Amino acid sequence: MSTASTPSNRSSVGRDRRRVVGVPKLCWCGQSIVELISKSTPNPYRRYYQCSLAIQEKLSNDQHTCKWVDEAYLDEIESLCARTLSLQEQFE
């Protein structure tokens, strides 16, 4: 796992940023996603996913995927809960 810093106000959904639900597998541009660790003061050691192209080109405030790991996991859990409820309803 790599380490890098990220702006403290980075969010999974920016004004122009595309919404990524769950754990991102690829960026919309087709590049791989890398898991990093924030070194910012407001979010020390908080893990996040970011597009490898954005990292390589040192892009900031761009439209490439960037999402906190904890938010991605919560999305995945919510999705699994919804699927579980749907399956339960089918069997009842």
TrEMBL record:
It comes from the Eukaryota. Keywords: Metal-binding, Zinc, Zinc-finger. InterPro entries: Znf_GRF (IPR010666). Residues 27-72 form the GRF-type domain. One of its GO terms (molecular function) is zinc ion binding. This is GRF-type domain-containing protein. The lineage of its organism: Eukaryota, Viridiplantae, Streptophyta, Embryophyta, Tracheophyta.
